[in-house]
Every structure is written in structure tokens, then in C-alpha cells.
Amino acid sequence: CVIPHLWHVIQGGIYHRQGGQHFNPFVYSDIRTITDHTHRSAHGGARVYLSDAFPESQHGRVFMANIHEHAVLSDVLERKGSGFVGHHGDDFLVANNAQWVGFSMEIGPEGGVYVLDWHDGDICGKEVLNGETGRIFRIMPEKSLAQNWEGRYADLQKLTDRQLAELQTSKSDWHARRARVILQSRAAKGKLSNDVYDQLRKIYQSHSNPDWRLRAMWTLHITGGFQPNDLAEALKAKDEYVRAWAIQLLCEDKSPSEAVLAEFAGMAAEDPSPVVRLYLASAMQRVNKNSSWEIAEALIAHSEDADDHNLPHMIWFGLEPLVAEDPDKGLALAEKSRIPLIAEYTARRTVDADATDRLIAVIEKKPKTLISMLEGMRDGLEGRNDLTAPSNWSSVYSALQKSDAKVAGLARDIAQLFGDTEAARQSLTTLKDKGTPQDDRRKAMNALAAQQRPELVKELPGLLEDPAVRTEAIRAIAGYDDEKLGALLLKKYPQLNAGEKREAVLTLSARPRYGRMLTNALKQKTIPKSDVPVYVARQLRRVVGSGFVETWGPIDELPSSENAAYNKYQRLLTTDALAKASPQRGKLLFQRTCGSCHKMFGEGGIIGPDLTGSNRTNTNYILSNVLNPSEEIQDDYKMVVVTTRDGRTYSGNVVGENTRQITLRVVGQDAVVINKSEVQSREATDQSMMPPGLFDMLRDEEVLDLVAYLRAGESLQ
Asked: What is the pLDDT of residues 70-96, one digit of tens each?
């Protein structure tokens, strides 16, 4: 392993792998040991802090194993609002063995870090193929800063209760945690001495180190050492984390007292700590409904939490079932919320609860949260074709049209979703006016197409000639089963650019009539077969039937024997050849062939997995995923095919779903919202949307450039 100077790795032995069981004897851990947004922990093992054996310069970092990079990475923790964020730290350890798969990490009694190495070519570990190859590594500094003391390496089970309690003030987190486990076990068996509680209370009540106070607090709780009112008194503690943990511990059995609930409501309004407010938001799901409403009402008054990365969502998680049950009460809160997300989500949930008329009545009053509530209303209505405007909408809409541009625009969007003829006329006027900003014209096009407005059909031929909205016009054609539009799109096809051609192929594969026309174009070679991705071909097989296969040929067979392909590209992708390749050209190729689905270093699509933290440096890993992408597919990336009652077919990944709607992520497009009442069939396939023969479509030089880019580091960006 390659690690910084002054560190070394000791291989500790072999362990028998049984599905990758972790060894984490945590009882409680402080929230300060968790990161909310670590960037490179995907497919990684457990995270740990460095212990007291490591240099002070390493404190404030969290360490995690990353199975794809065969490494132990670090993130630097930064306090932010109610929690922490992690920023990229130095790569702490990089293995020189592609089978090194860090799977779990733990701190040991001497302060070292122990890492389970799955040690296998199968990095995902779905099957235990070689049960005897697992290893344990210990990571230690060359010179440990851990202080030794008498009994550091003793058997903790043989220590007295008093000695175990004293370990709650130890610099060794391992000893403190193990001592808590043992004390909890002794208490459960009725073997814990009473005087140990006095010792723990002294630490908890008066020690200057808040971390050690927390340790004593946890120990008292799990051993039954607290008196009935002790935790209630802790709600007034000076340290914010002691107050926060008091909230959590009081709610563990979901039955805090009325006095405690009243205190919660007061804290939600007045406590200055966002950490405490986060724990109160979590508690909303563990208390009675009336108390949840009171806590929510106090929490949404904190405008300083509007941009917090935890609090708005945590408040909503507790509030959402209450709004579904009592929309009127939810709307009353939304009117005065100082957190925009709460107002937006409440409005959206009210629509789902069939209380749109009551939402409109609140909107009529033009509350301070008007824009957020209109956005939520729009999102709740989107994708539904069974809508009738409530009786009170017309007058409210007229009033909103006299408001500022933002409000008026949102009102028009909603009116369009209701099928309002006047709103459609305004959208059509906007669309046809070439002097209007392009974003507004595209938005108008999308609104008209979503409702399949008949007024749009006669405008589409002319809009196909307008580069500013041509892509949206091509997409809009998919909403209409019109042979003339399909023929026009095929005629226009040779003049389209690459992106527009992709959209045209997607549109022509959306309906049986269009699909047969595209199949005939492929047969006559007026559209090259290479323009149709394999996942679109699979969709066309469903849309057109066996006639498409007769033209295309077998779809699911690999373009060449898999073994032969492996051998071919392994011979091509040598170290010398890759060294001469151009990662810069490979980046452009990636953007053209892969970037619509995959993201790397923050750029690209999200149909497929983010490749940044994948095992990109391993050529065999790249080949296995490119040559046979359907071999292993995560559930989130399985292709779902949805056909609606009007004959349109969609293929994509499900990214959102509720009782009314399905949201699909489609290649090259924004998310598509489909009303469930319009769904005729829905099927999840075991096929990847990625074509299995990607390399066969490229020249050898292009394959080398693409792989060189995939293997390149972030510096190329």
C-alpha cells in the first residue's frame, strides 16, 4: 500500500468472509462523528475518526474505505448549520493491489485503525466466491501519540464497574465504547453496583469536557441510571449536544410526558441551536399529533434555517403525514412559514389530498409564501390529464395575472395544466413571438405539448424551422399521433444536428405509427442504424413488434463474442498504447457517447451511475462494464418501459413516484411526469439502457482515447 510518510500498514491476518459482516460495537455516537455530505464515500466502507494514536494534524477528518478506488480516503469536516459537510481531503492510503477492497473500518484498543479487506476481484461482494481470501489490515503511525496507561491492554471484562466508568473520560474512544457495552450488559443482568451511578453522574453533571459528559449521559441512559426527571432537566443544559441528546433519549419509547412536550414546543421556538432544532424536527415523528403541530409551527418560524441542508426536509418529514390528514391546518402553517420549502411542499401535498380548492382559497389571500405555494401547486398538478379547474380558480387566476411577472407566469402555468383556453392562447402567442426570450418560448412550448393542445399541431411544421425551439418542437410531436408530423420529421432529419437527431429518434420510437415509419427509414437506409441506440431499439421492438426485428436483426445479442471482444480490447489497451492516447480527445468523445447518461467530475447526465468514484483505473473493470453492461444493474438504473393509454411509450429510470404520478428520467430530457391513471402498462427490464457494443461503434484510436480519459485523474478537468 502507498501511504504518507510516518505511517505503516500491518497485515493482521485472514478472516472468513460470510457476506461482509461488520464489526462495529457502537452503543451511541455523537452526531459530530457523522458527515452529512461526504463526496467520495459511495461504494465505501464504514467511516471512522482517527483515534488518539494519530497526529493532531489529522483530527477533524473522517476516513472511509472506497472499494472502487482500492483506497482509504479522507474528508475534512466542517460545521455547517445543523450538521457537518465533508470536503475532499488527501487520499490517505492507495493500495497497489486491484483486489484490495476495503469493506469496514474500526478503531482498535491501541488507537490503530483496522480495515477489513474483502480481497477479491468481485468488488461488489454480492456472492462469496472465495471465502478464505479476506484479510485484516492495521494502520498505525510510525510514532504513536497514544498515551499508555496501566491496563490499556487488559481484558475489560475483568475490570470493576468503577474502572469501566472511569474509561468514559479516556482519550481512547475504543475503550469508552467497549466499557459502555460491558456496563450495559451488567446492568441488564442486575450485576451493576449502585455507587457507579454516582460516579457517572459526577462526570455528566460537572465535567468541563462536553464529549465526556455525553459519554456519561449515554452510559447512565443504557444502564438505567437516570432518575425520572434527569433527562427533562437536561433540556436546559448549557451544551447544545447534551440538550439534543436529551430530546432523542426522551423520545426513544415514543411516550414523552406532557411537561416534556410543552418544553419541546418552547425549545422549537426559542432554542438558538440549529442542532437542537434538528433533533426536535426528528422528534416530530415520535410524539403525538398535537405536539407535532406545535413543534412544526415553531420551527417554520426560523428563517435562518431556510437554506440549512437538513432542517427544511427533516421538518417536512414530520409534517407531511399531518398535512395529508388535515390540509386546512397545513395550509394555515404554510401561509406563515419562513421556510419556503415547507410552503411549497405543503401546497403540493394538498393537491394530492384532493384539497385544491382550499389551496386556491389560501392563494387568493396572496400570503407572503405565495410564490412557493404556486410552485408547489404547479408541481402537484403536473402530469395529470384528469383535471377540472375548481370553481374558485377563474377569479383567482384573473387577480394573479395582475401581479408581478413571476406570479403571473406561475399562474399561467397552472391555468395551462387545468386546460384553460385563455392560458393556452397566451402560451401560443408567446411561442410564436420570436422577439420573446428563448427560455420563455421553450417553456410555452412545453406547457402546450404537456396538455396536447390541438392549437399546437398546425404550428409545429413552422416551429421545426426555428432553431431556437426546434428541439422542443421535435419532442412535442411525440405527444400527437399524426402521420403528417412523423413524415415531416423524417423529411427534416438529414438537416438536423446530432442532438436534434437523437431527439427525433426518441420521438419516432414513442408511438406505433411513428415507429413503423422509422423502421421503414432504417430499412431504406435513409436513417443509419448507428443513429438508433440499442435501448431505443428495444423500445421499438415493443412499439412496432416483430417487424422491427426483421429489419434490425437480433437486439440482445452482443455484437461480437464476449470473450473474443475481451481478448481484442485487452490486446489493444496496452500500457504503451494508452500512454500515447489523447485524454483530451477522449473527453470530447465521452461527452458525445457517454455524457448524456453518465456524470464524471460533476459533468454529464444522471441516467447511469456517476463514474467519478468508480474503478476507472482498472482496464478489466472498464471492459466488463462496457462489453456487457447488463450483467449487473443496480435497481435504480434498471430500464422501466411505460406505455400510456393513448399509445405513447416511454423508457427511462424511475426517479420519483407517489400515489398519482410516476416520474421518469429519460435520456437527454428533463424528468417526465406521467399520470398513473393514464398508464396502460409498466415493466422493469433486466437490460441496461447502455448498448453492449459501444466499443464496436468506435475506431481503435477512439477507444484508446476514451479509455485514457476514463483513467485520467481530476487534474484533466
From this structure: 888 888 888 899 998 888 888 888 888
